[in-house]
Amino acid sequence: MVDVDRAAEVGKRVSSRVSEEGAGWSCRQIGTFQALRPSGKSFSWLKPATLWRSRNEILALLFGDPSNGVRGRWIAARKEQGADPDFRIKPQVGDEYSFLIVGDTGEGDASQYAVVPGLLKIGQGTAFAVIASDVIYPTGSGNEYGDKFFRPYQDYPAPIYAIPGNHDWYDGLGGFMRVFCDAPALKATRMGFSLSPAGLRGLLWKKPETIDEARLAEARTRRSRPEQRATQPAPYWVIDLPGLLLVGIDTGIRGTIDREQGEWLRRVSADPRPKVLITGKPIYDRNAYHPCPIDGGGTVDEIVRDPASNYVAAIGGDTHNYQRYPVTANGRVIQYIVSGGGGAFMHATHTIPRVDVGGVREDDFRCYPLRGDSLSFYSKLYRERLRMPWLYLTPDEGLVLMSRQIGNTPPRKPGTGEGGPDGSPPAAAKPMKITARMKWAARVLGGWPMPLRLPVGRTFHRYFSELSDWDTPPFFKSFLHVSVEAGDLRIRCFAATGCLPQEVDPPLEDEIIIPLTPHAAV
């Protein structure tokens, strides 16, 4: 029996949709995660060396993404090594079971380790976990799995499967395939220089690192118990479960899949059982639609929307927050979810406009962190790092500003903070006047439009503050607990702030119940 009642009860009292405390704003005691992480480890995207190591993303954009061709070589090698031709995984579970999904994990610093205590608590009794995109930052190196995979999850007692993200591909997928598929490195190919796009790309391309096998073997000892071990057949796979198929696809660097993977996806999707898609790039994200092209024609979302495929949800990583879009397609509701809050820096939600993509109504859209908390957090970051005190917006000010801009009812009632030291109620409990200073702060942070629609605010925010990492709460991280019981699929989003109260009682930020029968979800 899956203990879904315990998982459902945890967090309902203190989520960010209820109070500032639930969001982690009144953090008096930092969580126990600090004792788990390696001492002195910190990760920053503002270091030139980190950006240079990650240059393959830009090269793939300018000169073409080689992922599909390299993936073909990996798949051919796996077939020669005797992998199941359908890349099927069959865990030993009963008719009722649960598992975890956590996306974009591997920075190896406080923002990753802050997720671990809550994940272990909520994950008690789960059959396995899935990492959805970007297991290792910045380049997927097999030499960095010790502190960024084996150490943080050493106490998770079940197998962990994964699908690669774009950063795992910067190493040619070598580290990922060695760790998760136990595959030897591909033979190097030599290409002569030319002035073609492929030739220029090859000249500048970061080459895969040689894996230190002794170092990797030592790291593996942290997850060496028999019940933790698992070898997946390929970078894409299908987990065959009672009453449900979990289908994971590999979208490479630029978010496409190759012809062979597309044929495989159509084949496994022909099974009439309900399915959940796990993808490295989300199909709906930030009020935009990304259907995921397939080489040779068609898109992944055409397969997902086809009623014969019977997909009930599609969950993608890559964007470092939580979003949910209930899209009605061909008379069915499909839950499109972004779940990339498992460890990397936070992508802002306050830059997401009023939602209308795919016919989704703003009132049916969910995100974590709340837009107002996202705006307030980044204003705090600017105040501290750029010494701009006028930019700071309190959580209540952020809440009111974003609700005014989006045109919705505040998802959390203003005035749920602690109030003054004399026992007076929080200032936001009274009607709040939006001042010129508050508006300009929101504009600089990308939450409100600039005059004349200048792109300054969002551009500055995206390329400065979102790349600024931090090692103190609140972190606004998240992960998913998924369970199947009594004919229902339940997907719950739990938060991790880095504060002790949210470790003891992880906040439940969102929950969706999907009947695994032909009628609509609730």
Description:
The chain is of the alpha/beta class and 522 residues long. It has 19 helices and 16 strands. It has helices spanning 4-9, 20-23, 48-53, 56-63, 67-80, 110-113, 116-122, 145-150, 166-169, 174-180, 197-204, 213-220, 259-269, 300-305, 371-386, 395-406, 436-444, 456-463, 500-504; strands spanning 88-89, 97-102, 129-132, 160-163, 237-241, 244-249, 275-279, 284-285, 288-289, 311-316, 322-329, 332-339, 366-368, 477-485, 488-496, 508-515. The chain has an eight-stranded mixed beta sheet, with helices on one face. A six-stranded mixed beta sheet has the order 4-3-2-14-15-16. Strand 3, helix 8 (145-150) and strand 4 (160-163) form a beta-alpha-beta unit. Helix 4 (56-63) packs antiparallel against helix 11 and helix 15 (371-386) packs across helix 16 (395-406). It is globular. Residues 6-12 and 419-425 have low confidence and may be disordered.
